[in-house]
Amino acid sequence: MPDEIALVIATTLAAKGAEAVIAGGRNAFSALAGLLRGHFVANRRAATALDRALADPRDRQGQLALADALAAAMAADPRFAAQVLAHWRTARTEDLSGLVVNHVSGAAHKVIQARDIHGDVSI
Amino acid sequence: MVQAGSIRTVHLHQAPARSAVPRQLPPPAPHFTSRTGELAQLDTLLGRGGAMPAILTGPGGIGKTALALQWAHSVKHRFPDGQLYVDLDGFSDNEPVDPGVALTMFLRGLGVAPQHVPGTPAEQSALYRSITADRSVLVILDNARTPSQVRGLVPASATSAVVVTSRSRLAGLVPGGARIIDVPPLRARDSVALLARAVGGARIARERGGAQDLADICGGLPLALLVAAARLAARPRLSVARVAVELANEATRLEGLSVPEGLSVRAAFDLSYRTLNSDAATLYRRLSLHPGVDFGSGVVDALATAAGCAGARAPIEALLQASLLQERHEERFRFHDLVRLHARLKAQEDDAGDRDAAVLTMAEWYLAAARRADAVLTPYRTGPSYAAATEPASLPRFGGRDDALRWLDRERANLIAASRVALELGNAALAWHLSDALWPLLLFVKPPLRERLEVDSRGVAAARLWGEPAAEAVMLRRLSRVLTKLGDYAAAESHAHAAIRRYGDAGDPRGRLDAQQDLASVYRESGREERAAAMLFGVLAGYRRLGDSRGVGLTLIGLGMLLPGLGRAAEAVVLLREARAAFGDAAVADPYNGVRVTLGLAGALLATGDLPAAERAAAEAARGMRDLGASHEQAEALALLGRIALRRDDAGAARRHYRAAMELFAAAGSPRASAVRAELRLAG
Questions:
Q1: DSSP characters for B283-295?
Q2: Cα–Cα 20 to 30 A to B582, which of B206, B207, B252, B484?
Q3: Which strands, in side-by-side order, build the sheet including B83-87?
Q4: DSSP for chain A?
Q5: B570 at interface of A, judged by CB pairs closer than 8 A
Q6: Confidence band of B281 (pLDDT split at 50, 70, 90)
Q7: Closest residue by Cα to residue A62 from A51, A71, A70, A73
Q8: How far is CA A35 from CA A28, A73, A84, B127, B241, in A?
Q9: Tell me, what's the pLDDT at B656?
Q10: Which of residues 287-346 of B touch A (CB under 8 A)?
Q11: How many helices (H) and strands (E) does chain B have?
Q12: With contact defined as beta carbons under 8 Å apart, do B96 and B68 qualify?
């Protein structure tokens, strides 16, 4: 369960946070990225996963790595978990108020999954 | 919030299931051609019986499913107990079907009532084997991915047959006796024959050369041939040679783009796609993002409206005619998975915002439609509202309960997939509502426990992301109940505790008591009856404080059924008499629980040794449950009468009651049948 939560946060952060960080904006997704960066300061693997996920919103493996790191950190520290969730909700609300739905590349990752499943098939 | 009362009070009374004859085969492929060798092989392999699977293997688009269905339809008369079919590739595009889910569907197809499908895979498997042991059924396992998906679905009888289709060879099944049949590409003349069937014999005969070229380019792949043929059929004046040249050019172009395999398929799809008008092309791309594998016309209409198409009818017709879309059942559409993959590649060229809007349109359509079903099925349910961002159009209208329930059951996989996709998009509220929308189904149809586990787990995750403690508590309770049924007591206990805390956060004392009742169930089921009783006494006091007479009544029943096993039968009798008074007033509104009190009382009285009173109560309960159509509970009352008779040393009466109970349990496919059979044996 926490994994599904962490995955959603990692995926949406990768999609939105990258734009926010690049734009240098002070919106809630960049604040969430900042919270994670601060928490991961002594955890090089987690920090690397965060950088990787933010560098390319289409990098599914990067998002999975970030989700793993995030799930572990949230399980180990409930206060941090609560902060992450609160930040994420704020970010989502901001996002939804601006647009119908955010631009997670859900479809892109579907194609990848379908390909993974039918390893022997290509069209 | 969903009120506790709605969660615990509804029972479905069904007539006992008769053993059903499933007829699950999809229709055969309309232009099926040739394959005489493979059909003969199937005859030889499966004619001998023994239920050893025959595995049809080959690449996508080669016609494995068509071959399996062709053979199945030609021999189905040899299997008088029916035909079972499942597409193991999935009801959504995310994961292959869990063998337990497929098994549950088969059990239901064979007439096992939903509430009698056992919880654990081992028990399900045992029941499947015992039901199929003396039946002759034909089983088609389409698109299997792993040997483990197949193993549990092989019936036990020597007069049954199993055909598996798979892109991989599933060699792991060979040591167990399975045989592999390779499905090769069609030979050139068979390819031409297929074109003739699909396009018209005279036209193909006139253009023999072009047809042979076309067959050649399509590499003997029926899927590619059919897409090319569809183009020809739609354009009577187009020459076959011209289509062959176009396809060859397209394949060469793709080769230049280093698209590695399956050039003919890709080229055929590309060509057909380019001939679609704008509406059909848009719908082709957008529908490829549909959360589940098959879909009805309502969601297509909604999508077409949202995409600004002038209606859905014409574009759907165009896609069907181009063989880019299949209509497996009336008004029920699906893509071949290679076509869907192609459509998704095309969808990647769209703006990401348009793609997400399409997904949102479909997910919200499913929610709005499910809520209509919910309003018919559980109108007393209240819950948090959901503010849709889209305006769902073409929603279904339900004539009554059966209609609504059938719709929910048919769209189950789509609702689950929509919830998953909504969560992936970060729309936690929508994901929660879609999980919650399945509630009437969990209540009345009892879908497989593994599926419920997925739905409820996602519900918890969605609520946590959403930040709604009460919504989270509802899902935690459901999750705890499923885990209890699955025998995972540690997890069930921790989720029940979490639900109690969340109701505390939400300031809902009644919810807390309801969740404590769940916790007591976990204690009881895991053999900690003393603890369960202590908890229930606390809950009882809580309901009394709140003045919740229904909660009081139900808790009294729970305690009354629990205490006799703890040597506290006299106490149980007192509590159940109080419950009887509580339900006496409400007996009109809730006759079921009124009779349940009597059933509990019969058990408690037996434990105190008051045999005449016990017998009167048990007979009354048996009559009451029979009148309500609650056959399972009626059988429990009859078994109790058997026990009472045995205590009176009346072995003849005991046997009579046990036999009646056993028949009812067996008719409903209940695993309790074997326990009662054991009691019957003891009765001599």
A1: HHHHHTT-SBSEE
A2: B484
A3: B83-87, B138-142, B161-166, B54-57, B179-182
A4: -HHHHHHHHHHHIIIIIHHHHHHT--SHHHHHHHHHHHHGGG-HHHHHHHHHHHH-TT-HHHHHHHHHHHHHHHHH-HHHHHHHHHHHHHHHHHHHHHSSS----HHHHHHHHHHHHTTT---
A5: no
A6: very high
A7: A51
A8: 10, 12, 8, 53, 64
A9: 95
A10: 289, 337-338, 340-342, 344-345
A11: 33, 8
A12: no
The answer to whether B259 and B247 have CB atoms below 8 angstroms apart is: no
Instruction: Tell me the pLDDT tens digit for each residue of B290-320.
Output: 998 899 999 999 999 999 998 899 999 999 9
**B518 pLDDT more than 90:** yes
Helix B313-321, helix B278-287: angle, nearest 10: 80
b/e map of B248-258 (b: 16 or more CB within 10 Å)?
bebbeebeeee
pLDDT of B191 above 60: yes
Instruction: Give the integer Cα–Cα distance in Å for B645 and B608.
Output: 15
From the CB of residue B278, how many other CB atoms can be counted at a distance below 10 Å? 11
Answer with the residue of higher pLDDT: B383 or B397: B397
What is the pLDDT confidence band of residue B259, given thresholds at 50, 70 and 90? Answer: low
B412 closest CA partner among B375, B438, B439, B373: B438
- Say how many CB pairs under 8 Å bridge A and B: 119
Q: Are B497 and B512 in contact (CB under 8 A)?
A: no
pLDDT recorded at residue B50 = 66
**b/e per residue B213-236 (b: at least 16 CB within 10 A):** bbbbbbbbbbbbbbbbbbbbbeee
Pairing type for strands B332-334 and B294-296 reads: antiparallel
CA distance linking residue B524 with residue B137, whole number of Å? 40
Handedness of CA B388, B390, B391, B393 (dihedral sign): negative
Residue B261 at interface with chain A, using a CB cutoff of 8 Å: yes
According to DSSP, the residues that pair with B610 across neighbouring strands are none
Give the least confident one: A108-117, B118-127, B468-477.
A108-117
Residues of B in contact with A98 (CB under 8 A): none
Q: What was the ipTM of the complex prediction? A: 0.78
pLDDT of residue B70: 95
Q: How far is B281 from chain A (nearest CA, A)?
A: 17
Strand partners, B139: B84, B162
Mean pLDDT calculated for residue range A41-70: 90
Per-residue H/E/C for B579-645: HHHHHHHHCCCCHHHHHHHHHHHHHHHHHHCCHHHHHHHHHHHHHHHHHHCCHHHHHHHHHHHHHHH
Chain position carrying tokens 């597409």: B87
Give yes or no for residue B481 having a pLDDT over 60: yes
| Cα(B55)–Cα(A7) distance, integer angstroms | 37
Residue among A99, A101, A118, A122 with most chain B CBs within 10 A, to mutate? A101
Q: What is the mean pLDDT of chain B?
A: 88
- Compute the Cα dihedral for B274, B275, B278, B282 and give only its sign: negative
CA distance B525 to B485: 9
Look-up of token digits 């900690």: B528
Tell me: the pLDDT tens digits for B527-574? 999 999 999 999 999 999 999 888 899 999 999 999 999 999 999 999
Q: What is the DSSP letter of B92?
A: B
